TrEMBL record:
<feature type="transmembrane region" description="Helical">
    <location>
        <begin position="35"/>
        <end position="59"/>
    </location>
</feature>
<protein>
    <submittedName>
        <fullName>DNA-binding response regulator</fullName>
    </submittedName>
</protein>
<keyword id="KW-0804">Transcription</keyword>
<feature type="domain" description="HTH luxR-type">
    <location>
        <begin position="86"/>
        <end position="153"/>
    </location>
</feature>
<keyword id="KW-0238">DNA-binding</keyword>
<keyword id="KW-0805">Transcription regulation</keyword>
<feature type="transmembrane region" description="Helical">
    <location>
        <begin position="12"/>
        <end position="29"/>
    </location>
</feature>
<dbReference type="InterPro" id="IPR000792">
    <property type="entry name" value="Tscrpt_reg_LuxR_C"/>
</dbReference>
<dbReference type="InterPro" id="IPR016032">
    <property type="entry name" value="Sig_transdc_resp-reg_C-effctor"/>
</dbReference>
<keyword id="KW-0812">Transmembrane</keyword>
<dbReference type="InterPro" id="IPR036388">
    <property type="entry name" value="WH-like_DNA-bd_sf"/>
</dbReference>
<dbReference type="GO" id="GO:0006355">
    <property type="term" value="P:regulation of DNA-templated transcription"/>
</dbReference>
<dbReference type="GO" id="GO:0003677">
    <property type="term" value="F:DNA binding"/>
</dbReference>
<keyword id="KW-1133">Transmembrane helix</keyword>
<dbReference type="Pfam" id="PF00196">
    <property type="entry name" value="GerE"/>
</dbReference>
<keyword id="KW-0472">Membrane</keyword>
Length: 156
């Protein structure tokens, strides 16, 4: 049956196959001439696409945040308004009245120069009192000193 179909439609099949090959050849030649005629435009377009992709990739790499967000939970002291100086803590740490005054002014946010002006002493005296307070409270910075003094009820 297939031989009968082949014999009957042989010329039609051959014409169809030859036309398909000819059409493929013509399209291939057309593309070849397009590439030759418009080679610069095609290469420039390909280069533009490559650089656009490179720019997008580079922009995404540069705009990513490089730091991680770290959440620090800290206890906050809430005062009820009635401050009572803890004399035992004050005596136990060996903090003098003048050092306590310096610590209170630190808590107000004053600089060493402003504290010296308010207490009518030299800047070096304030620096000495500050370093003694840091030493006695076993801290490194002003904020740590103020925080620890508040926890110990030394300042309001």
């Amino acid at each position: 049956m297939t031989l009968n179909f082949w014999a009957r439609n042989r010329s039609v099949i051959l014409y169809g196959v030859s036309l398909a090959i000819l059409l493929f050849l013509m399209k291939w030649l057309e593309w070849r001439f397009i590439i030759v005629d418009y080679a610069f435009e095609l290469y420039a377009g390909a280069l533009a696409v490559i650089f656009t992709a490179l720019g997008i990739w580079l922009a995404t790499k540069l705009t990513k945040p490089k730091t991680n967000t770290i959440i620090v939970e800290k206890e906050v002291m809430v005062t009820n308004g009635d401050f009572v100086l803890d004399e035992k803590q004050l005596a136990g740490l060996g903090i003098s009245k003048r050092e306590l005054e310096v610590l209170q002014l630190m808590a107000e946010g004053l600089s060493n120069h402003q504290i010296a002006g308010r207490l009518f002493v030299s800047l070096n005296t304030i620096k000495t009192h500050s370093s003694k307070v840091f030493e006695k409270l076993e801290v490194q910075r002003r904020t740590q000193a103020v925080d620890k003094a508040r926890r110990l009820n030394l300042i309001p």
